[in-house]
Model the fold of this input.
Amino acid sequence: MKKLKITFNAPVVLGFALLSFAVLLLGIVTHGASTQTFFTTYRSDLRSPLTYLRFFTYTLGHSGWEHFIGNMSYILLLGPALEEKYGSAKLVVVILVTALITGIVNSMFFPTVALCGASGIVFAFIVMTSFTGFKGGEIPLTFILVAIIFIGQQIIDGVFINDNISNTAHIVGGIVGAAIGYIWNKK
Done:
């Protein structure tokens, strides 16, 4: 019988999860100061280099264990399949593009809202996963259902529930995931 061994099967996903965990621990040790300074994005002075850094790093920050566990559960569930299908470099592109677009949209249209966490990336992954069986000229029913269920829920929550969750980040992440999933799978 073969020996079982643990493999580092999805380096981008695992690296992202480990970095997020380290950032969470740093936030706990600094009583949130590091999270607020480096891992939360909000409208700030465009002359500050931190403004541009935070357009990406906010995805590593989380407000607490529950927030972290919720996001990492989805990322660790969906990410490895996406990384296997598209490759590590392309998954890095998805993460960076989602972070940047969501950060810019938030800064431009919601100046009083601070973003922290990877939920935009989670929604990009959710929608991209529904495209894995996509063939040219066809729209997968799974994509339509995911769009209705996940994105629709975020629109409803954004309009009717004030729960301090940025539904915009979820919606933008879903749109980015849909666009990338479509472009990469239409061939």
